Amino acid sequence: MSNPIDLDPFARFRTVTRARIGLGRAGDSLPIRAVLDFQLAHARARDAVHGHVDFAAMAARIGDRLPVIRLKSRAADRSIYLARPDLGRRVDPEMLAAVEKGNWDVAFVIADGLSAAAVEAHAEIVLSACVRRLGDLKVAPVALGEQARVAFGDEVGEALGARMVVVLIGERPGLSVPDSLGAYLTFGPKVGRRDSERNCISNIHADGLPHETAADKIVWLIRQALRLGLTGVELKEDMGGAPALPVSP
Amino acid sequence: MPSYAILLGRQRHVFDDLKAVMAAASPEKSGDRLAGIAAETNERRVAARYLLADVPLKTFLEEPLIPYEIDEVTRLILDDHDAAAFTPVAHMTVGQLRDWLLSYECTTADLSALAPGLTPEMAAAVSKIMRNHDLIAAAAKTSVVTGFRTTIGLRGRLSSRLQPNHPTDDPEGVAGSTLDGLTYGVGDAVIGINPASDNLEACVRLMELFDRLRQRFDIPMQSCVLTHVTTSIKAVEAGAPLDLVFQSIAGTEAANRGFGVDLKVLREGREAALSLKRGTVGDNVMYLETGQGSALSADAHHGVDEQTIEARAYAVARHLKPLIVNTVVGFIGPEYLYDAKQIIRAGLEDHFCGKLLGVPMGVDVCYTNHAEADQDDMDNLMFLLGSAGVNFLIAVPGADDVMLNYQSLSYHDIVSLRHSFGRPPAPEFEAWLYRMGLLDTNGRLASQASSDARRLIDFRASA
Fold this sequence. Notes:
The complex is a heterodimer of chains A (249) and B (463). Chain A is α/β, with parallel strands linked by helices and 249 residues long. Chain A has helices spanning 4-7, 32-50, 55-63, 78-83, 85-88, 93-97, 116-132, 152-160, 211-228, and strands at residues 68-72, 104-111, 142-146, 162-170, 181-187, 198-204. In chain A, strands 1-3-2-4-5-6 form a 6-stranded mixed sheet, with helices on both faces. Chain B is of the alpha/beta class. Chain B contains 22 helices and 15 strands. In chain B, the strands form 4 sheets. In chain B, strands 5, 6, 7, 8, 9, 10, 11, 12 and 15 form a 9-stranded parallel sheet that branches. A two-stranded antiparallel sheet of chain B has the order 1-2. In chain B, strands 3-4 form a two-stranded antiparallel ribbon.
């Protein structure tokens, strides 16, 4: 292992895969560097899952430009959130009652989901890029959802009186990417919408879909959805570009 | 339906039916709590176990937890039940079965003969009153041997699935992970890839890649592209070199419908693979995956606890005479199995119940990043399953699946278990490893300089 570049028989694969191949071994075990690299990646993923989005600071920043409402789900903390997805899909009833109904084309919800790091890094940038492209539409006050899952947006959109809702949410972190953001679009939001009635743009992060490209795709989908009156399997995202990788929220 | 009641001290615990007893007797699982059927208190859980221990095994034939009329899996279980095989334990209660399984008198031959006489509900019931130790000790006595180009499940052997997943199915990327694994002696159960796309042509390209590799190095192995059974049937019709047909299955008709399958299409898939006659040492042509919680996530659990539903999937599995079956135990997430304690317990339950029912059971020892678990917990589970005599385990490069974004075992872990337990790979595959010089005279990994490893690694996917 004195000259790993020349002696690495896996060198030709490293440009085409992020898989941890050709690691070498210490007896039957992984070499120490590989063990620590893995632990670092897992630590970052865990920190992303258990991290807190500073929604107060986010509300202040967004509030300079757009009306903002802060909401929480019915999951009181992260451990309840992880064990009870049903509670993360519903809005705290008192907070929900205070939401004013309007007449909006589209509502945006920023939800922490499973990666605080993703929301902190990408959500506001993608939101701004989308709103900039939607000057002709009536955009509802931006809702910030704490301990919230994708379907949380259904109840929010319904309460706001929005024709459709876009949820920007932290996706379940993998070892290679702890901060991937997803955007889920649902026409006619109401409690009980199925996942097959949504469209998803996933893998928004530094090595994935760039912010501006993501905004282009989201806005394209918003306009198609409002025109056709639907989202889901019948609305194909075919404005071009690489397909998103499969990621579970 | 009779209710079940027991007095413990001054507290009387009443359960509406057998289904409720089974759910309450289950070790703590977040999925059962999510379904609202878990025991409300620790005492109530033990109360249910006292009651369950006294339930006669025959009750499970008379009182199906999910009605015969509405569920084809229940019909399969009861119609396929072998009354003659059941005879030796027909007089027993669940508790008596547990004691007998652990007794010196109960042998491997007894368990093999008994398997068709047991229903999944009986296996699940007895597992609920067994500690982890009991699940390991009883499973270690079972033997389920299957074959295709390798023989899997032989006493004293440990097989493995090599899982070379890639986010875009890049052929060179897939080859890199595959060749790396082969140098560690991994892949004797199957080289099985989860394709990024269910597209028929993309799946066939992967089948051809593995078949070319197999023929180039004359490897006694089988490959599998884990696509939907209907896609595999089309691949067979298109003349693709398909070894095994894969499908995810569950323990209720409704949950299977959620996967887009029923018993009929599963049988058609098996017939399609059998028609190719590609096996050399056996004709087990199916690869099936299961996992606790899948029925609940499809809202198709009928109020039955997730572990019992999982055991019912093994009735579907054994009907199809598979080569290999594994539970993807920690993949589904913390809403069904919250932490390492629950994942480890479920892994041992699934392996025990599968083997007891005559299923060639393996495990994907794994977890997601939102579960309370890490690689140390996987070390624990893999050694426990090694003790329990698991047929095969799954491994990915460096334990990191870069396509499905979860962690499993590494190739290194398989090597380590084989050495720790003195369990070499399947005999046909082991002989190939010696031919290639990949194992030294002690059965350990040879140094790369003295082997054909470099020739293997230089294989071109595009050639």
